[in-house]
Amino acid sequence: MAVPDANPSRHVAFLKQSCGFSTQARNSTCCRKAIRTTNPATLAASARRVLVGPRGAVILALGCFLHTLTIVVVWALGRAQGFMLPVTDAAVLFTVMVGVQFVPISISGWGLRELAMISLLGTHGIAPERALLFSVCFGLVYAVGSLPGALIWLLYSFASSSRTAQHDALPLSRKTQPGQRASAGPRQAPTAS
Predict the structure, then answer these.
(1) C-alpha distances in angstroms, 39 versus 11, 20, 30, 46, 155?
(2) Overall pTM surpassing 0.90 (yes/no)
(3) What are the contacts of 84-90 at 24+ separation with CB within 8 A?
(4) What is the CA 105 to chain-centroid distance, rounded?
(5) Which domain holds residue 126?
(6) Do residues 67 and 149 share a domain?
């Protein structure tokens, strides 16, 4: 059963964000439209096409790799600030920080993440000032680490919009429909020999 897909790039951006590829994509217009205008069947079909498709294993592996790198960043920031964090504690801190960031009442989780870190690290005897500094440093490192992805996203969106503009400028006879190959010229009727 094929589910009609109005704009697959919205679904791909939403799925990339869900897999951990970009924290900035969550706040983009593209993802907000995908979440608002997509029915569950279309989203499920898009998720299946992306994750079970030929590149599904690569997408999942990259998502896990990026989360592992972020856990290493949390561990390194903790070490730099004098916290003797084991990697397992850094993984728990990362999970709490990212989970709190997804609550949609602040911009990119700022403020909520700091409150969560002050509360969580305060129960372990860490002063609120140090916990706040840790959380702000993590937020800044995370923002700086997202800049290359934001640049690629901007370049990709401008490239795809220029391709759409070029496609719209083509005469109707040269445009192709989904699932149809482009033709070199007018079609000839087959001749019987």
Answers:
(1) 11, 22, 15, 11, 29
(2) no
(3) none
(4) 19
(5) 56-154
(6) yes
